[in-house]
Structure formats: C-alpha cells, structure tokens
Design goal:
By secondary structure, this protein is of the alpha/beta class.
Length: 451
Amino acid sequence: MNESSPFKSLIQWTENRTPWERVGKILSSRGMIYEAHLPRAIIGSNVEFKTENGEATYGEVVALRNGKCLAMPYNELASINSETKVYLKNTVTEIKVTSAILGRVVDFQGHPIDGKGPIEGLYEKRSIFGTPINPLQRPPIREALDVGVKSINTFITAGKGQRLAIMAGSGVGKSVLMGMIAKNTSADINVIALIGERGREVLEFIESDLGPEGLARSVVIVATSDSSALIRSKAAYAATTIAEFFRDQGSDVLLMMDSITRFAMANREISLSAGEAPGPKGYSPSVFAKLPKLMERAGTKSGAGTITGIYTVLVEGGDMDEPIADAVRSISDGHIVLSRELAARNHYPAIDVLQSVSRVMPKVATREHKIVASHLRDLLAAYKQNEDLITVGAYSRGSNVKVDKAITVYDDLIALLRQDMNESAKIDKLFDQMLDIARKAEGAVDPNFQQ
C-alpha cells in the first residue's frame, strides 16, 4: 500500500481517535522502567499496569523516547511480562487537600495511613508541582520565627518564610532536632515530610520526638526507604503542596523535610533508569534542576501566610561540600551544621554555631540581639582556637584579653547552647541570658565595668 494512500491516512485518523490510544502493552524493560506505546501520554501522566493474573498497580510516565513512553510503577509487580497492559489515566498528578488533614499521617497521595479513618470535609484539588510565584510578589522576610531551640534562637535566628538546611551525617540527631522544633515553634502549622526514613523510625518519631501536642498541629507525610523512587520523590512535592494550601489560608507554616538528600537520590534513580547521563556522584543534571523548583516554593507570598522550609541534608562521610549539600546550601537562606564531635561530647542538640549561619538574622533580630550574639560568637571562636593550649594548661592568663573573657564565660556559653529535648526556650528570655554572659565576660577583665 502506498505511503500516501488516503486509505492509510483514514486508518491513522481513526486509530488516533479511538479509546485504544489510551491502552498499550509492555514492550521492554530497563531496571525499574518499562517501555510502552501510549500515543496520548505526556511526562507526568498517571498509568495503571494490569497483569494477566489480575494484579494491578499505578505508576507514572517519567520520560518519552522514540515515540514510546517510559513508565515506572509505584509498587513492584512480580508478574509483569510482555502481555501486561498499560492504561493511561490522568495527565496531571493531583492530590486532595483539606483543613481536616491536620493531625493526620498520610502517604504521598494524601491518603491516611494512621488507622483513624478517612479524612472528611470539603477539599480542594491541587497539582503537586504547584505554580511558580512572581518574585515581586514575595514580601521581604522581616519577622523572626521562634523555634524554641536555644542554639537557633540565639545565634542562628530564623525568619518567617526562610529556607534553612540542617546538614549532618547519620546518627547525629537530625530527627530529634526536628521534633524539638515541631513541638516548640511559634508557627501555626507543621507539615513534616519523612522521605526515605527507616520504617521503624516513623512511629518512634511521631510518638517520642513529635508527641501528641506536636502532632495535633501537624501533618506528617510518609514515604519510607522501601518505597519506590517515584513515591519518595512525589511525597516531597505532596508535602510542599499541603504547606502551600495552609499558607494560602493565611497561616504561618513550618515545612520540615527529612531528608532532601533522599529526594535527590530518588530522582537520581529515576533519571539514570530513564537513560539520562550521570554527573557528579552519579547525580544527573535534572536532579540539580529539580532542587530549586521544589525549595523555591517555600517562602513568603503577598496576601497570604508564609512557609518556612527546614530541609535536612544527609552529608556523605561528613563531607559538607558534596554535590547535594553544596547545591542545597546555595539555594537555602542559611544552614545549621550538626557536629559529630559535639555529639560525642554529649552536647545536644549538636549544633556547631560557628559553622552555622542564618542569612536573614540581620533583618529579623533586634539591633541589641545582633550585637550581643556577635560578641559571644567571637568569644566562642577565640576559645575554640586556643582550646588545646587551655586544656593542657599551656595558656597563660593575660596573654590575650579576648581569650581571658572566653575562658571566664565558656561554661556559661555551653550551658546556654545545651538543651533537653523536652525543654522549650523563647527568644526574649534567651536574650536576657546572653546579656548576662556578655556582662560577666566584660567584668572579668575590667573590675570597674558597670553591670
């Protein structure tokens, strides 16, 4: 039959307008990716895999190649073969959001997994990928956010609408710190995304670290480490969408994501399976493109509330300059470094204030607070630089005025920075303690100093 035959054109026209264009079969596989012929599919389309023996699971189109779509299932299907059918479903990934979701634990689709029954009430459908905000519609950050943690409130003061990265290796106390912040923050609502967490740690975090009081004003989104890469990636977007819903209602929202590194790892698995070329540490270029698109959704918005984003970064081998850590640090408005050395000294939370910084602190803290915090930071740095000499008794008093002051108040500074996980500390009371320590330091070298 001639290629230009009217009869062939009629067949193609008919095929493109029949329901069968929304049904295909598995053509080939590559790791977690399956290739199918679905003419109407677009990247992000939802699909359903159905095997011959009746097993089924949903998935998503992650790439297109040579007229075929590459789809990844949410859950593993052991009986997938060349006869497995793929049905094209919705073309946009949406979740239902409602105020009734507060106090609940949900999955990446917003479905409850806490055994408390369905989530009732009026809901709104939103795309999990959100809509970018005009940068001129983002008011400057000018109001401090009290997180109830001494180290942060004193030296790394956060602002409403800020993005902060918590950077640490494994087992240094990231989850405990997140629980402390969730329980003690002055924010109206917490949205907590547990991305790639160990299964046993989820309930432990909810019951021990977060507690009933913290859960009552929180939404917890869970995608454990045994979930597919697609689910782990989508859970981060879903959590941000829920935070945007409450922000648009006028609430000050604290969005905490543990961890952004596992979100990046999930997207690395997806992109490599789809055939994208690897980059530094195996991370493909699309991973670094997705990080700002996710994190930039937090922040302020004209005529609405705020989203303060706190993202934990699991640094590999303690390397604070590895690719994901470096990328997140460049996107965020400050970073908090947790030190394994401090944790080994039983100093909790193990926040290294000398390595941490809040870029919005100059805009949200009072002038007096900034002056006193800067002075105490100088004293702490002076002590750290001479710690070996001081410890072995080789330092002679009077050699350096700043070090003399630091030695006098060092124990007071450490006591100021240490905190029990069930303890709360407000900014105003902490400033009074900081002022007392600063006065004590000046009085140690100047007997005539006016207290």
